[in-house]
Amino acid sequence: MLSAFTIDVPGLRFLGRGMAYDLSSPDTETLRARLATRWRELLGPQDSQHIRPHVTIQNKVEPAEARQLRDELEARFIPFIVRGEGLDLWEYRGGPWAHLRTFLFAANGEAVEGTQTALKC
Question: Which residues pair with 55 in a beta bridge?
Answer without folding.
Answer: 21
